[in-house]
Structures are given as C-alpha cells and as structure tokens.
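Quick look at the format.
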Amino acid sequence: MSNPAPDAKASRKSLATLFFCTAMPMGMWSVPLSNVFNAHGRGHLVPWVFATTATAAFISPLFVGAMADQKHSPVLLLRWLTAATSLTLLLTSAALAWAWSDAAVLICAQALALVALPAWSVTSSIVFSQLHDAKAQFGPLRAWATGGWMVGCWVVSFVLRADASLLAAVTAAGLWLVVMALTWKLPMIPPGEVVQHRTWKQILGLDALGLLVHRDHRVVFLTAALYCIPLAAFYPYTSRQLHDLGVENISAVMSLGQTTEVLVMLILANVMARFRLKWVFFSGIAICVVRFSLNALNSLPAVMLGTFMHGFAYTLYFITTQIYLEERIDPKWRVRAQALLAMLMSGVGNLLGYLGGGWWYDACTTVVDVPWPWWCPPSLTVKITDWPRFWWGEVGLTAVVCVFFAVAYRGRPRTQ
C-alpha cells in the first residue's frame, strides 16, 4: 500500500480512534498492576515498578530525540514504539509468570517504560499536527483517550475478570499491536524541523529553564512537580485499599475517576472563561485534599466518592497547565516548555512520589501473626495497613502544596 501524501489530513474519526485505542491498553495494565504484582508475590516491587516510568521520563527524550534527528516521520516512530511496547509488556509478564529474579523483573519493567512513555507523547503530537484549530478541537478528541482508558478498565474487571491476573497484561500487549496497525491508516506526516547540532540541554528541554525567571511560570512548574508527589499514591494504593475493603472489580471502580475527567474536559473552557486562572489551578489541588481525606475515612462509599473526584483533581490543574503554557509562553519555547513540564512531573515529581509513597506505605503497614489451632501448622503471617494514617499523611502533603501555590502565584488581572 502506498503512503498518503505528506499534506493529507486524517479524519476526526481516525484521530479519535487512535486516541481511544492508545489509552485503552495503558489503563488495562496501569490500574491492576499493583494487585497483579501482589498476586505473584512481588508486592514489594510495586513502588519501584511505578518509579521506572519516572526514570524513563529522564531517558526517553534522548531516545525519541535521537530518532527525530534521523528525520523519521512521527507515524513511523509510533509504529516502532507500539511494537516495542507490546513486546516488552509480554516480557514483563513472562518475568512474573516464570518467577524471574526481582532484578530481572525490574529490568523488564524499565524497558517497558522506556518505550511506552514516549508512545503517548508521539500520539498527541500526531493528533495536534492534524488539527486546524487545536484549542477548539483537541479537548473533545482528548476525551476519547479518557474513554479508552475507562473501557480498558471495564474489560479487565467485567470481561476478563483479571484484576489480579496477567491476562490483563497479555490482552493489553495485543491491543498495542492494534495501535500499530492503525498507523497504516494515518497519513505519513513529515518530520518537523530538525536542528542538526542540538546540545544535550536542547534535547532534554533544559534550555527552557530560562522560563523559570518569570515568577508565575516558576510557581506553575514547581507546583506541578510538588503536586505529583502525593498524586502518585492514587493508582498504586487506592487499588490496594479497595482490595482490602473487599472489592472484586477494582479496575472498574478505579475508572470512576475518568468519568469526571471527561466531564471537566468538556466544561473546562467555560470554567476558564468565568474564573481567574489562579482559582482554577487552586481548585484542582484543593479538591485533591478533599479526595484524599475521603480515602482516609477507609469506608467503601468514601473511597469510591474520592475516586470519583480524581478527574477534578487531575484535570483542573494539569490540563489547565498545558493551556497556560499554550497561552503564556512564547510560541518558539512552547515545545521545550512542555518537555520541561513532563520531566518535572513524570520525572522529578513521580519519582519522589512513588519511592516516597512506598516508604510511607511500609511505615503504615505492620506484620501480624494470626494464630492457628494447635493441630495446624504455625501461625499465618498477615500484613495490615493503617489506611487512615497513610492517607492523612498524603492529605497533609497535598495541603502544603495547596497553600504554597495560593501564596506564591500572582497571576494577572482578568482585564488582560
């Protein structure tokens, strides 16, 4: 089949399908990951596995930048990345199923993160390149990605019954191959302008550090990194708490957060038109304080309500941050500003959040010996987590971030 013309435009339907199918396997593996590792006796590796995505945020720009220097189309790049993601996900599943060493499992997980993380950013760049009016068209298309994540969670819980099974990972690996197949339906987009002699700072987006001289830019970037530290506790530990509360369809319950995410994306433009940007930012962090407080109550209705509020807590800050960069940053710096934001969030913030959260979880978990009758073997060892203590710690950390932003961010009058 011949390649389409370079100036061809993909239909809205094909772009929505690409977003939907890319997010679906991401949700199918990311949400049940914690319980899958627990079921295979590797629960102690969960913080480190999640941290692989953070370390990949430092390395992947080099990986993708090297390919971009060779002037490859982003469509070809996505095709290779999705194939590699499918392969490394199967390899990680095999490492768990065949009881490989902890080091081998983490190596496989790190390889998966290195190729899966840039796949999403490349998908977004392809969609952006096909839009005539990105501000008006991107939001509804991005909502299809959230829908794909939700459907992936529902399939895991209601169809596969695999909330703690590697069947979720194997199915997700197959869906990554579906995304690879979709790339043949996209126009062969030419690569963007490539600088022939880029420095390491340019590849990593670190030359955008000059943007931090501006006070509000500095506060927005720094708050994003700090906010990611407590927010990193959502997927690894909410799923464990739901398991302890006796929930079976954990992935489906976790998808409640995406329902509000879609809602907020659809109304965000109206919200930003009515309120100052500062209060949109602030409300996202403040809602997260309330959400974690509900988790601290450690009852199923409260945890489900807190999960439902995730979409508000995430979208009102992070999607608004992307819009902030689009509107307040000089166009020639926007790409590098987005790269710096991704590094601070996915790299610095998530790394501290996953590792720090793992330490705090261990501190809130005790090992209890459950005695058996005298005619049975020795006592059974059970781990019990003090969930109220764990989540109140996250509440305190989020509240500090909220106060910091409220005091430090100035903004500009609505008349501007």
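Next, a different chain entirely:
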Amino acid sequence: MTMRSMAPSRLVLALVAAGALGGAGATFLTISHVSAAPTAVTVTTPAVASNSAIGAPDFSQIAERYGAAVVNISVSGTKAATDDSQQEPAAQRRGVPGMDPNDPFYEFFRRFQGPNGAMPGQRDQPVRGQGSGFIVSGNGLILTNAHVVRDAKDVTVKLTDRREFQAKVLGSDPKTDVAVLKIEASNLPVVPLGDSHNLRVGEWVLAIGSPFGFENSVSAGVVSAKGRALPDDGFVPFIQTDVAVNPGNSGGPLFNSRGEVIGINSQIFSHTGGYQGLSFAIPIDLAIKIKDQIVATGKASHARLGVAIQDVNQGFADSFKLDKPEGALVANVDKGSPADRAGLQAGDVIRKINGQPIIASNDLSALIGQSAPGQKVAIEIWRQGKREELSAQLGDASDKAGKVAKADESAGKGKLGLALRALEPSERRDSGLATGLVVEGVSGAAELAGVRPSDVVLAVNGTAVKNVEQVREIVSSSNKSVALLIEREGSKIFVPVRIG
C-alpha cells in the first residue's frame, strides 16, 4: 500500500495507521473515505487544572483516568495481488512494487506484470498493521477507523493491563472511516463521549494512541479549524488540529479539556508520512451515528441527492449575479434521481439545505451523506437571478454514487475566444444531446479557463444555447465573467471564463 500524492504540490494525505508491515518496518495506508442512544457509560469528567506558567491545561488527570480505555489494535490478513487498483491512484496502478519508475529496468519488469499490476504467479500479499481504538461500552464495544481493520482477518485488541482479546469486526463504513469492534469482556473502562458541535477553534485537545506501536502515548494541541473537507472524503466535516499524531494513532480518541471524547483521530497531511502540524479527526457526533447503525444492522447507510456539483468561485458568482461566492453549483443532474424528481437543474446554485447554509460544495456532500435515505429536505436554490425553494426526498447512496465535478478556475481577460458551430444531426444522435455548440477553436480567455476543442457548450450563465448569436448576446451583457456549461467526454462541467 502506498501514499497518495496530491499534485501539483506533492503534499501527501496519509492515513495515520501503520500499514502493511514488511521486514523493514511500516508503510502507510492510502486513502481509498442511524439511530439508537449511545451505549457509552456516563462518567463524571475530572476537572483539568491549568498550568498558569504557559497557559495550557494539565491533562495528566485525563490521561490517568481514561488511558486505560484506549486500546492498541493489531491486524493481520491478506490482500489479493490484483487489488492494488483499489488502494492506489491510477498513475501508480501498473507500477512495479519496490522499484523507482526512473530505474532503467522498470519498464522491463512492468511488461511481465498482469493486467492489474500483479507479477505472474504472484500470491496474495500479507497485510499486517497497527492502530488504536477506544472502549465506548463496558461490555466490549470499541470504536476505531475503518482503514485500521481493512483487509483484516484477525484483529487483536490489547488493553493497558496487557490482556489481549480477539475482536470481531461488527461493521465498517469506508465513507466515514468508522469501524466498530466487539471483544468478549465485561466491566471494562470506558471513555465519556462529548459533543463535537460545541467544540471551538483554539480549544485545547488531547490525543491518546499508539504511534509507531508506542502504546498509550499522549500528545496535546489546539483545534485549528472545524468542518474541514479533504479530497475523496466528502462525507466527513473533519476537525483539524495541530496535535502530533503519527502512524498508529489512527482510531484513537481526541479529548477536550473536560475529558470528553470529541473525535476519532484519522488522517494527517504530510510531505513525509509523519506528523508535520496538520492532523484531522472525525467528529464524535458523526461517529456515534455510524456506530449505532452498525450495531443495529451491521452496516451504515448514506443518503444521495443525485447531482454533480462544483464550488462557486468569484467568477461563477459574477456570472450568476450572486452577492458572494458561496453555495454548490449544480453541474449535472442524474436522470431519475431525487434531484431530478425535485426539479433541480444544471446551473442552479444550492445555497441552503433545511435552512443550513451551504458555503462550499463539500458542505452539501457532508450534509446529504450524513442524512438518512428517504429523508425529506428543503432546498434553497439560486436560479436565473432569484431565490427559489424546492423539496426532495433523498435516495440511497449505495444505489448510485453522486459525482463531484472539478473545473479549472484560471481565467484571462478579453473576449470569449471561442469558435463555435451547431451540432450536426449525426452528432446529436450519437451524443443524445438535443442542442449545443461544438468548440471548433479556442483562444484567449476561454483557452486560459480550460475550454478545449471538441467540447460542447450547452449553456451560458444557466441559459441553454442553440446558436452563436445567443452566446454573443449573453456575453455582451455580462460584465466580468460568464459560466459555460460544457459536455466533455460524456460528463458535464461548468467552466468560469473571465472576460473583463
């Protein structure tokens, strides 16, 4: 398993559990991402003294009282040699394990691999790893990360008193990275669960876990931000902290200064795979919802709206006459989806769900993903320069995953810079498009914005276009930028083009 690099900055988003262990040590797992009452035992939390010399709280009472409820998790299992495509980015899927792509023999050995990167006769690969978890009920329920127990056949839980138990994975949810384990024991120490909604930026927090296998290690820091969205993790509004967490901390608890667990440590941003000041935790409120579903049914369910969305940048805000660049821009609506039945259209900007503001597109993904299939939601949209209200009944995300579109946000100045023509009858028939204008040539602002020859322009500023005159008219009445809805290789996406 390898880490996923984030071009162009080469910043690595690494899951902080130790991954498959070879003879030399640990490698890092790659990112692939309701409701009974909580079963945690209520415990009176200890008061935390403040160190007046440095202004930081004294966490020793929390570590002493609740450290025993934090466990070390060891896993072993096998991973099919042809399954690397599920764990690695596309650019790495057909590589040669352990070889530098610049090695002169790299291409020679790559040619002998199977279609999914496996060498002929290669057997399933062993998987061993370590992580952390914490006990939430005296009869042995444990919360951890889904990636900690991924591909595991044997899961061993070790307590601070050195007792070891074979654990059963009751269920895991890759979308939120939450898993629930069960060990056969009673009268176990438990952690008290807090409310992550009440967490404040700047508040002191404490992590306990097993970084690099060093069990029950304690580290502290502050909350850097709330509601962070990470690549490929649209279902989770992460808590960002500067608490030092490293491989092996995954699945461990994040405490507030009152000794309540308010998150599950899950991921880090890093150039090296080690801690560099940015760590992320799953809010405990979300984790408990997932835990309750898994305990009740063995799995977690997520809702689906059925739209491809983009962030609203300043160019889009200017194009759609929005007062500020906020909301989720609908690039495409899946036919027959809840969004389609509700009347959502490409070009709508979703601004609120059930009265809750949508600032960025990931806010919408998190809200919908945490909702229950079948739930009805009120949707406030911005369409053609005015506010409208719609209602939708959400579907099940397991039926069909929604898509998030991405657009090149660069733009230039000047005229639009497009040479357009109408679709030929044969092109309309083959593409299934009733109208649209094919991009024959591109230059200037449109080229800088990322429009390509052979793209099909479907709409400008939310208005469907049938001829070049319509485009000219819309562009001439636009002051700063226009939003082009284009179809490219079967997918629809909005591209902002700054024209002035």
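The radius of gyration is 25 Å.

See the schema section for token definitions.
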